[in-house]
Amino acid sequence: MSLTKEYFMEATEGCPVIPAIKNDEWLEACKESDCGIAYIIYGDICNIAEIVQKVKAAGKMAIVHVDLINGLSSKEISVDFLKKYTDMDGIISMKPVMIKRAKELGIFTIQRFYVMDALSYANVVKHVKNCNPDVVELMPAGLSKIIKYLLEEIDKPVVASGLILDKEDVMGALKTGADAVSTTNREVWNC
User: Fold this and answer.
1) SS3 category, 52
2) Is the peptide bond before 140 cis (omega within 30 degrees of 0)?
3) Cα angle for residues 7, 10, 15 (degrees, 5° grid)
4) Of 11, 13, 46, 80, which has the maximum CB count within 10 A?
């Protein structure tokens, strides 16, 4: 089964907290998470296929943050590499060129944005229109007012991430309209 926006929405409706795994220990802990999706935010070109397989063996869809994999460049060929040599279900990237290439290859995409000021806010709208990602991820998650306004301008599911300190932060992001929350905070991984 390939990851679609519909499956993503269904999986995050049941458990809106997506584990972001950053090392092998966290990969093991991820197996206990209720969410059917996991973000892979570590690894290198020598072990990424193995990490993806472990996530999939745990019954989770594996979404690789292509910008954070050691040995991959910020060129489109990195997306081709992941498609050819791993069984990943999708990618996350902050780079429009990566999102565009993944879309060309039929790969599920999450475009991540740091919203720090009015210029970065405007860039979200521009890049979503140009790249057409399946999902938009906004950082940091505590931007409840910004999430609300952006949801009026972009017609995409939104994942909030960054600086999730507790369940209150999770609930705050969800109340403002985010569809899910991604976090490395293991204390809030279970719904």
Assistant:
1) helix
2) yes
3) 125
4) 11
What backbone phi and psi angles, to 5 degrees, belong to 142? -75, 10
> Measured between alpha carbons, how far is 26 from 36 in angstroms, rounded to an integer?
15
Instruction: Count how many Cα atoms sit within 13 Å of the Cα of residue 134 in the half-sphere of its side chain.
Output: 20
In this structure, which amino acid lies at residue 94?
Answer: M
The DSSP code for 59 is T
Q: Which residues of the chain have pLDDT under 70?
A: 1, 141-143, 191
Q: Which of 98, 83, 158 is nearest to 125 (CA)?
A: 158
Tokens standing for residue 190: 């279970």
41-77 per-position pLDDT tens digit = 999 999 999 999 999 999 999 999 999 999 999 899 9
Supply the pLDDT for residue 129. 92
| pLDDT, position 70 | 97
Round to whole Å and give the CA distance between 18 and 33: 8
